Amino acid sequence: MVSSLLFFFSMVAAGGAAAAVYRPFPPLLGLSGATSSPILGAAAGGALAAILQQIWKRLFPIWFQENAETRFVNSFFVGLGATLIGIVFYFALGIAFPAGGAVRIVQGFLLIGSTLVGLRIGFALDSPIWKTSEGAHLRARAGRNRTSIGKLLDTSIIIDGRIGGLLTTGFIEGEILVPEFVLAELQNIADSSNSLRRRKGRRGLDILNEMMQDDSVSIRVLSKDYPSIREVDRKLIRLAKDEGATLVTTDFNLNRVAQVEGVSILNVNELANAVRPRFIPGEGISVEVIDRGEEINQGIGYLDDGTMVVIENGRRHIGRTIKATVKSTLQTEAGRMLFAEPTSGPTRWER
């Protein structure tokens, strides 16, 4: 409040002082020009201060909204162009009409009005209007060669740990991008009071450190953040759009939201499901029964790739590795499940 009043009275004093020196206003109400000009100048300065304060109140919260940077840049360029047009008309009026107080007032309103209109029009534009030919060339080249697109990592894929192996084998190419807000979330997980979350967070930090130490991996930490966006997933989607990057994740919900937003996604779980070996009914497998199932006499085991195997009449084999025959398969969003039964005789692959 105090700063607003100081700004207001400063503008009033500045307007009165400038008008007293230049005397742009004609004598009014029987007052001489030396008297009326400071009064009208002070009033103009106060009006301008009130307008600027209202503009500031509107712009300050907008600065933290989504896409604010692009809006302000557009506003600057369009406002600059409108100001140049206003200057042309300013001098045109001065040439067309004889000098006088009324002409100067019209010139001032024309110059200020054109600038404000340009700023308002530019701020209403969401898409950037300043695009270089180099950026267009890079986007076109990226469209022809998808492997050069950067890969943006989220917290889940770093904790998962498989990203390191994928980078080593060369199945994922391009520059690896890690945002600072993901590192902050990873550190919070590593400092958690929950022991399981703490171990996951520390494992993620170790894996990330190993990737940074690997000279064959091109990795870059991005400092760009979006203070107006609170959720990390929304920040990742926004950053992927801004950088033109592919989002790498194991988060099912983030995968679905990013697809709706039109962001390119690499889901490592979907990749793992795609490369798992296919089994057909009657095929033989070797599996260790490690636990009982939900139904009577069922046993549960897992293959080396993590595929869950439900074994009918397998409860009595808990703790042993047995040969089983696949009866059917079930594909779920979480992965593939096999239903099998212990093999009583030699299987097809043993004959």
| Largest sheet: number of strands, sense, barrel closure | 5 strands, parallel
Tell me the CATH superfamily of the largest domain. Answer: 5'-nuclease
* Secondary structure tally: strands: 10
The low-pLDDT segments are: 132-147, 345-351
By DSSP (H or I, 4+ residues per run), the number of helices equals: 12
Under the CATH scheme, which class of the largest domain? Alpha Beta
The CA-CA distance between the termini, in Å, is: 90 Å
Principal-axis shape equals rod-shaped
Instruction: Give helix and strand order, one letter per element, not per position.
Output: HHHHHEHHEHHEHEHEHEEEEE
Strand order of the largest sheet: 3-2-1-4-5
Q: How many separate domains make up the residues?
A: 3
CATH topology of the largest domain: Rossmann fold
Helix fraction? 40-55%
The percent range for strand residues is: 15-25%
Describe this structure in words.
- The protein is built from twelve helices and ten strands.
- It is of the alpha/beta class.
- The chain has a five-stranded parallel sheet.
- Helix 1 (2-22) runs antiparallel to helix 2.
- The termini are far apart.
What is the compact description of this entry?
The chain is an alpha/beta fold and 351 residues long.
Could you give the topology of this structure?
Layout: H1 2-22, H2 33-62, H3 68-96, H4 101-123, H5 133-144, E1 151-153, H6 155-160, H7 162-169, E2 176-179, H8 180-190, H9 195-213, E3 219-222, H10 232-243, E4 246-249, H11 252-261, E5 265-267, H12 268-275, E6 284-292, E7 299-302, E8 308-311, E9 321-332, E10 335-342
Parallel strand pairs: 1-2, 1-4, 2-3, 4-5, 8-10
Antiparallel strand pairs: 6-7, 6-9, 7-8, 9-10
Helix pairs in contact: 1-2, 3-4, 8-9
